[in-house]
């Protein structure tokens, strides 16, 4: 795989990109915003508002790491993923990849970078063209980018099929001949076709059965170890995120409210919203001390007219007047670990603990963790 990686990159790519410094972020976003305008009025349509899907997101992704992005449905995490891959144009903010600002880069400037930032889509049924064979689907990125790997594209596709655990002889089959898990593996193979440095995985296992989820997650972890690929893993399942990600960012209504390494976030969440999310997960140990579930009342506010100040204040049991007038910055609080950032005026105490075992792992994921531990 390493030999192909050096040979399949086009000359323009080699000149435009430099090797990433592991001490510097591979992908960095600051103040990233995406507002979808709402038009109304007759007969002359004019903008009457905007859906604030993503509003001021700041994140760093380092080479070879896995960053989890979690939150309720509609919080803006999938939109953030599409912005990171530049499938969408940001309204404002900066996206920096390997030292280059690609926030509003044109098609020509993005061309050498596209091969290094790939995406795995959520729906394995809708993301594959039913009229194309597996060989055509996986070789598509190589054809678009004009890349001819040693031995030809067909040989490369067969190698990728074997890498993701599929039979290379299925090269000429169509998507409908595969199961959901196999289709997602095809999507993974397509994302690997150009030897990316970072993959944005948008809920890659949410449409699959739990037993198949474990297989796909194990595949992604093995690929990350072998190829040193960075991942942004978007999901709503806290157990899967805990299993896969090294660092985790929590989003609420278009904003990141907490960022921390896995142990810090699950053992001592500082933001009330994170604490509430973890308290809602059932306890697998019937003999353990019962943790009181924090119930959030009311609905998530509309992203068209979000609350002033802290966006979580309308559902927060700790909200005070200050929360309505001042937006809390995302900063490291006293007593928090290095890199544990929280956006809250009245955070949870450092002693507030939500232990890891309270987050239930499915037996298939438990077996997977034990297997990986034995390997180490």
UniProtKB/TrEMBL annotation:
<keyword id="KW-0547">Nucleotide-binding</keyword>
<dbReference type="InterPro" id="IPR003439">
    <property type="entry name" value="ABC_transporter-like_ATP-bd"/>
</dbReference>
<feature type="compositionally biased region" description="Polar residues">
    <location>
        <begin position="1"/>
        <end position="16"/>
    </location>
</feature>
<dbReference type="GO" id="GO:0005524">
    <property type="term" value="F:ATP binding"/>
</dbReference>
<dbReference type="Pfam" id="PF08352">
    <property type="entry name" value="oligo_HPY"/>
</dbReference>
<keyword id="KW-0813">Transport</keyword>
<dbReference type="InterPro" id="IPR027417">
    <property type="entry name" value="P-loop_NTPase"/>
</dbReference>
<comment type="similarity">
    <text>Belongs to the ABC transporter superfamily.</text>
</comment>
<dbReference type="InterPro" id="IPR003593">
    <property type="entry name" value="AAA+_ATPase"/>
</dbReference>
<dbReference type="Pfam" id="PF00005">
    <property type="entry name" value="ABC_tran"/>
</dbReference>
<protein>
    <submittedName>
        <fullName>Dipeptide ABC transporter ATP-binding protein</fullName>
    </submittedName>
</protein>
<feature type="region of interest" description="Disordered">
    <location>
        <begin position="1"/>
        <end position="25"/>
    </location>
</feature>
<feature type="domain" description="ABC transporter">
    <location>
        <begin position="27"/>
        <end position="278"/>
    </location>
</feature>
<dbReference type="InterPro" id="IPR050319">
    <property type="entry name" value="ABC_transp_ATP-bind"/>
</dbReference>
<dbReference type="InterPro" id="IPR013563">
    <property type="entry name" value="Oligopep_ABC_C"/>
</dbReference>
<keyword id="KW-0067">ATP-binding</keyword>
<dbReference type="InterPro" id="IPR017871">
    <property type="entry name" value="ABC_transporter-like_CS"/>
</dbReference>
